[in-house]
Design brief:
- The chain is α/β, with parallel strands linked by helices.
- It is built from 14 helices and 10 strands.
- Strands 2-1-3-4-5 form a 5-stranded parallel β-sheet. A 5-stranded parallel β-sheet has the order 7-6-8-9-10, with helices on both faces.
- Helix 1 (about 15-30) links the parallel strand 1 and strand 2.
- The longest helix is centred in the C-terminal third of the chain and has 24 residues, at about 365-390.
- The radius of gyration is 20 Å and the shape is globular.
């Protein structure tokens, strides 16, 4: 029996990225479809080269592109510097790699995208791309997550795939028009992505939930320890952006509640405002431990989509901050808006200067949110099954 091939960023050292990639595998397992995630080790250099060429040519005026420079600097620091930051980064990287080896069922390595394409018809009944921000301009330029390598005879599916922004640069839009016409079944993660597909190729596509939301908090217990990693009462902080007011909010929350701050720091890059605001900053944390830290927290403060997702699943009082303040076309804020619209939660997006007492008095109706989520989850599974069965 032919398998379903998953095209995802399973290798990315980011908690949300790795968990959503694993959730896609979990969903296909749950539905009874034999599947494997494409091992990109043989042609990762090909992908990276295309992305680097794109960023070299692109304007450096947007928040996202500027952040890539910071990440590139961080990669060099981690590789060539010898200090506490790089040592801790290696500890975290090892935890990600161990998790990936344990949980992902990978395909044989292919030496190039061309070789992968030539084997698709023989090996796979469908190729599914998803989810996360796999259609960002840099990824479109890399031409892997576009599924252009898949022969037309093989079923192609996008599940909850995201553009990561509300519009595309002209060159990226031109390329998107081609692959969006060719992918047989498209389900996107954000309403902004739904509008973008309509604008680009006049296709009406559904919004489906992120794969992490296809499972309940109880189902996510399968990969984590039951016992709390941190025994005392704590506020869990997970910030990827460099925004001091967000850390200041967490410190004010600590003063008001008496809970200590446990934070994952210096995530995508070295962040100055991560220094000395938390009581504990563990690094030996893998994606399953990340879930444990959210599940057992008293409060959660984050600028992360996926941290917000798991806060909802585990019914945690959470405060979400916008990582990018400016409403540029490259801002990734739209995913938060879609998430909160899907589950009917409002008033949880903060700036950092809010009154803590007022924030603590704002209650979340998790029963209503989970009821809405059940409907979204059901509709998303229907989309996925129909896409898999109709090539």
């Amino acid at each position: 029996m032919k398998r379903v091939a998953i095209v995802s960023c399973y290798f990315q050292h980011n908690y949300g990225s790795m968990l959503q990639a694993y959730a896609t595998q979990m969903a296909l397992d749950k539905l009874g479809y034999e599947n494997e995630t494409i091992d990109i080790s043989g042609f990762n250099g090909e992908i990276k080269k295309a992305k680097m060429l794109y960023f070299a040519k692109a304007s450096l005026t947007s928040d996202i592109l500027l952040s890539k420079l910071g990440m590139a600097k961080t990669v060099l620091m981690r590789k060539f510097s010898k200090n506490e930051y790089t040592s801790n980064s290696h500890i975290r990287a090892e935890k990600f790699d161990t998790f990936s080896k344990k949980y992902f069922r990978l395909s044989p390595a292919y030496n190039s995208k061309a070789e992968l394409g030539s084997k698709c018809e023989e090996n796979y009944s469908a190729v599914l791309v998803g989810s996360d921000q796999l259609w960002l301009p840099g990824n479109i330029a890399a031409d892997y997550y576009t599924l252009n390598f898949v022969p037309k005879s093989v079923n192609t599916i996008a599940y909850a795939t995201s553009f990561g922004q509300i519009s595309l640069p002209k060159d990226s839009a031109k390329k998107a028009k081609i692959f969006l016409r060719n992918i047989k079944h498209i389900g996107v993660r954000e309403e902004s992505g739904q509008k973008l597909v309509k604008e680009l190729v006049d296709r009406d596509v559904p919004v489906v939930c992120d794969p992490t939301l296809l499972f309940t908090g109880d189902e996510w217990m399968a990969i984590q320890k039951k016992e709390p990693i941190v025994m005392e009462k704590y506020i869990f902080c997970y910030f990827l952006g460099n925004n001091p007011p967000h850390r200041k909010f967490a410190k004010s929350l600590k003063e008001k509640t008496g809970c200590k701050i446990v934070a994952l720091t210096h995530l995508d890059e070295f962040v100055k405002s991560d220094e000395r605001y938390a009581d504990e900053t563990p690094y030996d944390i893998d994606p399953s431990d990340f879930l444990n830290l959210i599940r057992n927290a008293e409060y959660v403060c984050t600028d992360s989509f996926h941290c917000s997702v798991f806060s909802i699943l585990y019914r945690k009082p959470f405060f979400t901050f916008r990582r990018y303040a400016r409403k540029t076309r490259s801002s990734t804020n739209s995913r938060l808006d879609t998430l909160f619209n899907l589950v009917g939660i409002s008033g949880r997006i903060m700036n950092g200067d809010e009154n803590i007492e007022k924030c603590l008095s704002m209650k979340i109706d998790f029963d209503a949110a989970h009821k809405k989520l059940e409907n979204v989850r059901s509709d998303s599974y229907v989309y996925l099954v129909n896409a898999l069965n109709n090539d």
